[in-house]
Write a structure and sequence with these properties.
The complex is a heterodimer of chains A (about 325) and B (about 425).
Chain A lengths: L12 H18 L13 E6 L4 H13 L3 E6 L9 H13 L3 E6 L4 H8 L3 E7 L5 H15 L6 E5 L6 H12 L3 E5 L15 E3 L2 H4 L5 E4 L4 H4 L7 H8 L3 H4 L7 E3 L12 H4 L6 H20 L13
Parallel strand pairs in A: 1-2, 1-3, 3-4, 5-6, 5-8, 6-7, 8-9
Chain B lengths: L4 E8 L4 E7 L2 E6 L8 E4 L4 E4 L1 E6 L12 H10 L2 E6 L10 H14 L3 E4 L15 H6 L6 E2 L9 H10 L6 E4 L12 E2 L2 H6 L3 E2 L1 H18 L3 E3 L5 H12 L4 E5 L1 H5 L21 H13 L4 E2 L28 H10 L6 H16 L16 E11 L18 E11 L2 E5 L2 E2 L1
Parallel strand pairs in B: 1-4, 1-5, 6-7, 7-8, 9-10, 10-13, 11-12, 13-14, 14-15
Antiparallel strand pairs in B: 1-2, 2-3, 5-16, 16-17, 17-18, 18-19
Helix pairs in contact in B: 1-2, 4-6, 6-7, 7-9
Bound molecules: zinc ion.
Organism (chain A): Actinomadura logoneensis
Keywords (chain A): Pyrimidine biosynthesis, Transferase
Protein name (chain A): Aspartate carbamoyltransferase
Chain lengths: ~325, ~425
């Protein structure tokens, strides 16, 4: 594997499968308990969050702690660090602290790339602007594998604000690497102009795509898009692109419904869908810790075996 | 009495070797085997002699941002790049929107003495796009401004643009438009296309430039005025300008060196050294721009030299300043993009980088052919060496060059400003 995980494209098929297999082992090893593994004892992981995301920060923190790493939470939100020059200063501070791994969440696309130029430790992208969120894609793939088995040839439909979604970008890349077939469904205003160059099909018609989908992933509609003229009203968006019980009935019996959270119930997903047996939304949270443990272990673990098994880097 | 120089064996516009005698600020003679008693000899075997380069688009940053550049440092950079005249853009602080500010910049240039500094006047007060600045007063000032631009901002209001185009006719002025439809580019970071989609950055669509150019050529045609289009960056813009010229519209256009060489693939690094306005476009756009410069659809190369301090670029892309320096690399980049590819010969380079920009800016003493009696504004250029660009060696106060470490051809050996060398043997005088 590469030294950093900044884009889902950093992972080859073998890398991705290694992460997913490792996540599976780590999940089993720690299942049902808060059992700690000694793997990253003595290593320091810094959670550098320039954007509020309690869910993601807690997930990374739990992952690092279950591997016995020392965790430093560095929340830059609200401080003067919203100015760009501070990213470099922050990086120099992290260097002085001897961070082995830096988990960064940042509102600017590419901030983890910049950080990687300035620190020696491994950089893990925990979401950058409207670019990528590779560990979300890994936990999603992990969740799909647990429910559906091998992803080769599986049909995954991603619905919503593709243009601004880091989750969508990382998922398209990773799912393509893993052999799944991705279809993007959105109003044309929320698709990038060059989406035809992506390894994915595009449709404007959710109803037509649902019956052949193994997975439907609903993306959150950000509040700032609601009044920016991308669609006429939230109600119209919900009617055309929301997943309600009636639409859910068009899915095949085995198909699952995913959402990266946090949800707008009643907008992109109806409550009865979110709470149905098809929904993996709660599992995704738990799986997030396992997937992030795998990433941290593989990037920072050096040559030590995770749980008794030699894993090559 | 000034020194007399005898330039030996230079290839004038890349032609056969000849000697050039420079005396009292003018070219006293040009031809084979000239001799002159007491003249200082400049050996120029193998060097190309060009008329001193003229830049229609330079940001000297003074007054206001002397931490990035001053008239002194910027004109030294210009001389090192082979320039004998630069047009200083109006987006300073205070804005060059009054006779007082343009005269100040003009005087600073005279005092620095490395090249002529011709101030550009703002079109509108404070570059706000609302009310015309005192264009006539700037034209009548000691700086004799002829080029007006709100560069950095687009004169987006169609009525204001129309009035500006009409108004400058009174003194043969030209409005140089920074073509960027503001609503289509709110928060825009890079060319909108495959790269922006992959990188998750707000796109800057080609149509935001092309729509303004289309409107402006129609306006200029309607009122019979001169229009100049700054930094053309898309293939579509080229098509519109080509069409407008075919209809007799008095439009001229410039392309920057960086838009002739670099494309938006470089944004993949998220290094904002490549962040510029207008943005780097696709490889297809680069090809179209090169051919447009070769066939004359685009009239000139202009640097859009835009110095920024280190901290303005050592950031995330989204908060970084837009722009790159270019005076000291322009000729090398044009050689790489246009001469090495066979699209332009040295006579063509002289036209695009000296004669035509001087004509558009109405600089009578610049861009003249290298012939007896002309002011001795001469650039001696060695096209043979290839070297890695070293930002630390630059005369500009800023280091934001996108070419750092890139191997480019050529080297400016000497620059003469009215017979006085500002650069000799590659060194500032
Ligand atoms: Zn401009």
């Amino acid at each position: 594997m590469k030294r950093h995980l900044i884009s889902a494209a950093d992972l080859t098929r073998d890398d991705a499968l290694l992460v997913l297999d490792t996540a599976e082992e780590l999940a089993r090893a720690t299942e049902g308990s808060m059992k700690k593994l000694p793997t990253l004892r003595g290593r320091t992981v810094v959670n550098l969050f320039f954007e509020d995301s309690t869910r993601t920060r807690i997930s990374f923190e739990a992952a690092a702690k279950r591997l016995s790493a020392d965790v430093i939470n560095f929340s830059a939100k609200g401080s003067s660090v919203s100015k760009g020059e501070s990213l470099k200063d922050t990086a120099l501070t992290l260097e002085a602290m001897g961070a082995d791994g830096v988990v960064i969440r940042h509102g600017a696309s590419g901030a983890p790339h910049r950080l990687a130029n300035w620190v020696r430790g491994s950089v893990v992208n925990a979401g950058d602007g409207t670019h990528e969120h590779p560990t979300q894609a890994l936990l999603d793939a992990f969740t799909m594998r647990r429910r559906l088995g091998d992803l080769d040839g599986r049909k995954v439909t991603i619905v919503g604000d593709i243009l601004h979604s880091r989750v969508a970008r990382s998922n398209v890349l990773l799912l393509n690497t893993l052999g799944a077939e991705v279809t993007l469904v959105a109003p044309p205003t929320l698709l990038p102009v060059a989406v035809d160059t992506w390894p994915a099909e595009v449709s404007y018609d959710l109803d037509a795509v649902l019956p052949k989908s193994d997975v439907v992933m609903m993306l959150r509609v950000q509040h700032e898009r609601m009044n920016a003229g991308y669609f006429p009203t939230v109600r119209e968006y919900s009617r055309r692109y929301g997943l309600d019980a009636e639409r859910m009935a068009r899915l095949a019996d085995h198909a699952i419904v995913m959402h990266p959270g946090p949800m707008n119930r009643g907008v992109e997903i109806a409550a009865e869908v979110a709470d149905s047996v098809r929904s993996t939304i709660v599992e995704q949270v738990a799986n997030g810790v396992s997937a992030r443990m795998a990433v941290l272990y593989l990037l920072l673990g050096g040559s030590e075996p995770a749980i008794g098994k030699e894993v090559s880097q | 009495m000034s020194t007399t120089y005898l330039i030996k064996g230079a290839r004038v516009l890349g032609g056969d070797p000849a000697d050039i005698l420079v005396r009292d600020g003018v070219i006293a003679g040009i031809g084979p085997d000239l001799a002159a008693d007491g003249a200082e000899v400049v050996e120029a075997g193998g060097l190309v002699a060009l008329p001193g380069l003229v830049d229609l688009h330079t940001h000297l940053r003074e007054p206001g941002r002397e931490d990035a550049e001053t008239v002194g440092s910027g004109t030294r950079a210009a001389a090192m790049g082979g320039y004998t005249a630069v047009h200083a853009m109006a987006n300073t602080d205070p804005v060059a929107d009054t006779a007082g500010v343009v005269e100040q910049v003009w005087r600073l240039g005279r005092e620095a003495g490395y090249c002529d500094v011709q101030p550009v006047g703002a079109v509108t007060v404070g570059l706000k796009g609302e009310r015309l600045a005192e264009i006539g007063a700037m034209a009548d000032s000691a700086a004799a401004v002829r080029v007006f631009s709100d560069d950095g901002h687009c004169v987006s209001d169609a009525v204001v643009m129309r009035r500006a185009l009409e108004y400058v006719k009174a003194f043969d002025g030209v409005v140089a438009q920074h073509a960027q439809e503001p609503r289509l580019t709110e928060g825009a970071q890079m060319n909108e296309g495959e790269m922006s989609a992959a990188l998750g950055m707000r796109g800057w669509p080609a149509v935001a430039e092309e729509a303004i150019i289309a409107r402006d050529v129609l306006l200029a045609q309607h009122v019979g005025s001169r229009l100049h289009v700054c930094h053309v960056s898309t293939a579509g813009s080229v098509e519109i300008i080509r069409w407008a010229k075919s209809k007799g519209c008095r439009v001229t256009a410039e392309v920057t060196p960086h838009h002739l060489l670099l494309n938006d693939g470089l944004a993949e690094s998220y290094d904002p050294i490549y962040k510029v306005n207008p943005p780097l476009r696709t490889a297809d756009d680069v090809t179209a721009l090169r051919h447009a410069l070769a066939d004359g659809t685009i009239d000139i190369v202009a640097t859009d030299h835009a110095p920024h301090p280190v901290e303005a670029k050592e950031t995330e892309w989204a908060v970084a300043a837009m722009g790159m320096i270019g005076l000291e690399t322009a000729l090398s980049v044009v050689q790489e993009a246009m001469v090495e590819t066979g699209l332009l010969d040295w006579a063509g380079v002289a036209d695009r980088m000296s004669t035509a920009p001087a004509r558009i800016g109405r600089l009578s003493g610049q861009g003249r052919p290298l012939e007896a009696g002309a002011p001795a504004n001469i650039t001696l250029y060695d096209p043979s060496p290839r070297r890695a660009v070293d930002p630390a060696a630059m005369a500009s106060k800023s280091r934001n060059t996108p070419y750092a470490g890139m191997e480019l051809p050529g080297r400016v050996v000497a620059t003469f400003l009215r017979g006085r060398p500002t650069v000799l043997e590659g060194k500032l005088q």
